[in-house]
Amino acid sequence: MTKPCEVSWFSALCDDDYEFLGNPDPRLQSSFEHCRNIILGAEKGGFDNILLPSGFALGIDGTAIAGAVGALTSQIRMLLAVRCGEMWPPQLARQLATLDQILDGRLTINIISSDLPGAPLESAPRYRRTLEVMEIVRTLMSGRDLSFDGEFFQLDLEAPRFCKERRRAPPYYFGGLSDNARDVAAKAADVFLMWPDTVANVKEILDDMRARAASYNRTLKFGYRVHVIVRETETEARAYAARLMSKLDDDVGTATRQKSLDHASVGVQRQAQMRDVADDEGFAEDHLWTGIGRARSGCGAAIVGDPDQVLAKIKSYQEMGFEAFIFSGYPHAQECDLFSRYVLPELNHGPLEIST
Fold it and tell me: What is the assigned CATH class of domain 6-227+306-346?
């Protein structure tokens, strides 16, 4: 039997839920009700975890959503995106420890190496600051007192009583393709997240990250973040992909991508390169469709096919070493239901166990 993997869904906190890409629908805009319903649907469908993304300009606050929905769920974990450039690390540690108690230990953390809104920082110092935040938060959440003399933070304080009682630091999920990002992941992340890419590039990145982690006497687990379109037949799946793009104005798509704070990152540039080499229907390789990237920044490709084809694609990634998957689709609640019925029952899956 294939080794178990963690299977996560995605809740649309950043006004990025559509029936037709590039055409906002008021019914699908981010709100507590809409995001709550996606999360509850994912738990009902049997998903192990759910990503709560974060975008300063576009998104509603994921921490508040996680706290509110935490009281309504009992099984699904919550992968909270934390924009670590926006928070004072000791307060962030206390906030996350409180949230972890609300969730009864179901909190996982997606570290985002963000700017302080309105105060951009060059990549190298920004990632150095990110590493400091990760170290400070992990120390305090583990219940250990802190004496820290860094480039950005100089702190000497006891861990909050609440953290000392819990003594739990949730695992860090972290992504990025620049050298700065890869090095921070190798030093301090637990799960290295990738956006979709061709098989050859995926293997190169995995080899590089394994070597980088080993140089710090560490090992990493690997996660794959990708959209999905699954239907009873491949013809239906491809037709739905075409329908999804049928009302997109390319100028609107370009403007949407440019609005994102990460639009110039190495990872986003790689998604654009895949679109450039894709075939006339937007496929960069079998069942990997890049059309979605025409209308959004970040993760820009989808696995498209019938249930057997989608399952085979996922299992091929497992064979490469991926132990965690974060899926999404449009509209998110609808595709969540389809994936939970067509694919999830065929996967050997469960929450990723990580010792931090």
Answer: alpha beta
Q: What is the DSSP letter of 9?
A: E
Place of tokens 């990110």: 130
Nearest to 201 by CA among 310, 127, 288: 288
- Say which DSSP state 30 is in: -
Q: Which residue has the tokens 């400091």?
A: 132
The three-state secondary structure class of 282 is: coil
> What sign has the CA pseudo-torsion 40, 43, 45, 49?
positive
Q: Which has the closest alpha carbon to 13: 57, 45, 72, 46?
A: 57
| DSSP state letters, 149-217 | E-SS-EEEEPPPHHHHHH---PPEEEE--SHHHHHHHHHH-SEEEE----HHHHHHHHHHHHHHHHHTT
- Per DSSP bridges, beta strands 302-305 and 288-289 are antiparallel
Q: Domain ranges in the chain?
A: 6-227+306-346
Q: Which tokens is 166 given?
A: 């819990």
- CB of 87 closer than 8 Å to CB of 54: no
119 secondary structure, DSSP code: B
Amino acid at 28: L
Identify whether the C-beta of residue 298 lies closer than 8 Å to the C-beta of residue 268. Answer: yes
Q: For residue 109, how many C-alpha atoms fall within 13 Å in the half-sphere facing its CB? A: 28
105 near 323, Cβ under 8 Å?
Answer: no
Report residue 281 as tokens.
Answer: 């229907």
0.85 exceeded by pTM: yes
Per-residue pLDDT of the chain (356 residues; tens, 9 = 90+): 578 999 999 999 998 899 999 898 999 999 999 999 999 999 999 999 999 998 777 678 999 999 999 999 999 999 999 998 888 999 999 999 999 999 999 999 999 998 887 888 999 999 999 999 999 999 999 999 999 999 999 999 999 998 998 899 999 999 999 999 999 999 999 999 999 999 999 999 999 999 999 999 999 999 999 999 999 999 999 999 999 999 987 765 566 655 655 556 776 777 778 878 778 888 989 999 998 888 777 788 999 999 999 999 999 999 999 999 999 999 999 999 999 999 999 999 999 998 76
